[in-house]
# Entry
Amino acid sequence: MTTALLSTADELHARVRHGRRAVVMTMGALHEGHATLIRAAREIAGPDGEVVVTVFVNPLQFGAGEDLDRYPRTLDADLALAGRAGADAVFAPSVDEVYPGGEPQVRITAGPMGGRLEGATRPGHFDGMLTVVAKLLHLTRPDVALYGQKDAQQLALIRRMVRDLNFGVEIVGVPTVREEDGLALSSRNRYLAPEQRATALTLSRALFAGRDRHAAQEALRARALEVPSTHARAEALSAIGESRAAADAHAVATAAPGGPAAVRAAARQALDEAARFDPPLDLDYLALVDPADFTEIADDYTGEAVLAIAAKVGSTRLIDNIPLTFGSPGAAL
# Structure
């Protein structure tokens, strides 16, 4: 299949459409994470539909001192990867095509959620992101648009914008793709020297430590609920390594499932252990938040959550996150 390279909206609109159009928005420098998004889009669009990949480095979402000028531009390689993954067209407009007449006077505002976490670190970033997403949705006119869950706050804001402003498009989130050692795929990973990359693994290690603590607590709690509050409960818990089960069984069974405080503590411990690394990790935030608004969750919270982290290694800023669920059927005794 030949993948068309388009630079204007008129070229894109002139294409004959039969089935569903699925769009994957990128800033280029495509990697396997993007390929996964494109393959998912191909599956959704089906053989009769169309997959369009946008490649546009949006100046509005880069703040002062950020890496707009050095952000990698690899259009030829992007076109080849997109084609292999199943894209029908790559839409790579110029800045003038997206913002005719200069920076837009009217923009999308991200609201309170846009000022938290990434928004607090990068003021105005999400306003610029939502503005270009809105424009690209209008320019590409998709039935469905796919975004990676690695940018969890971005995905949440796009979903909110589409719902609040009645965009007629389905938004699909695709799970984060990782390298074998756990590092989340990112176009910025190419900036990392070998020793910096070793430090960067701290991000995923901290997240996995929180996830593993949560899983262990859930397993212990589920086992505790399987037996009555008697000596049998103590024996059951002792069998899975809890020597103090007789004293702890009732507390474990009735505790808030998964323990947000324990998840935070486990992730923080992993970060503390990495403090001696050279080069060091410069942490922006570690947060355990409600994905509906990205506010910190309480210790008695139940429902979906996101454990998110952002940090710099040298001059390269990286983000990562994992989803967690607190609470399960039968939680109340």
Observations:
- The CA atoms of residues 256 and 300 lie 5 Å apart.
